[in-house]
Amino acid sequence: MSLAAIKEKAATLKAGFVESGAEPVDCPVLLPADTLLDLYGEDIRTRAFLTHDPVRGEVILRPDFTVPVVQKHMAEGAEPARYTYAGEIFRRQEEHPERPSEYHQVGYEVFDRADPAGADAEVFARFSEALAPYGLRAVVGDIGILIAAVEGLETSEARKAALMRHIWRPRRFRALLDRYAGRAPVPSSRTALLASPDPLSLAGPMIGLRGTAEIAARVDALRADAQDPVLPGDQVDLLEALVKVSETCGNALEQLRDIAVDMPAIAGAVDRMAARCEALAARGIDVTSLMFDANFGRTSMEYYDGFVFGFSARGRPDWPLVASGGRYDALTRQLGQGREIPAVGGVIRPGLLVDLEEAA
Prior knowledge:
By secondary structure, the protein is α+β, with helices and mostly antiparallel strands. The chain folds into 2 domains: about 5-150 and about 235-360, 2-Layer Sandwich (BirA Bifunctional Protein, domain 2); about 155-230, no CATH class. About 45% of the residues lie in helices and about 20% in strands. The strands form 2 sheets. It has a 9-stranded mixed sheet, with helices on both faces. Helix 6 (about 155-165) runs antiparallel to helix 7 (about 170-180) and helix 11 packs antiparallel against helix 12.
């Protein structure tokens, strides 16, 4: 596989999106680190390459295009808008050292507040058409349904916020849910800490960036959490049933509607999924065979908060997704400086398409 072949494939894909009405955009390779650190916290350091510029301060090698494209649109874009781009991104691969840390992406993004379901269907259909020759397996999901379920739980706002932070970390989410439901014991270290009338008196020398006031505030938060009532078991059971839904879209929709009878907080999100299925069918997508997985996107799509999708290569479980995307309305609120707009998009890895062509 040559770099020239990858660039040629990227240019072909980008040209197809331009023909569909997208405006081509470029983004700098070096981005200010503060924006991404604000969005993702210090975790971003384990996934991206950061360095120091003597003039600009801490900067990051572009880990994706979505954030700078959203920033560009929120600062100067008209509505509605469609964008496409192509270029290198850089990501650390400590968990998968066999994968390249520098690779190409081609993307397509839609900013449109008039018809979110239609925009979801548009992006998915564009990708399906571009990827049709490669025999990929498509799957869709909807993180918005899980978010709505968490928002509807009968528990404190602090506990809801903790679960929200870990929706994209399923193991941590599960551990919190078990503890809030009384199904897992409170760690003995925490029990001892909260039993002490003056926990800070047990501390040794202060090490790190946290000061005494911050530590005391954290202890107070833990004490308040310990007083919260146990999360009702029936709500936990419904959440477990929700995340286990993995069916074709039509069957999944029936299951989710059944769950919504006892969990009305998700009813609106399920209705939005139904509207999306109708919009997909109107664009020629066979939703009777399209797979829906309620857990899809929870480990790799951190800023997506609604519809998510992916295309994987059959017989290559060792590969990352060939293409992926989804809805990221919340990201536009975070970067919009008081403005927001519904947005959805996705990316394709042209290098993997070249590999598939060479292996055929």
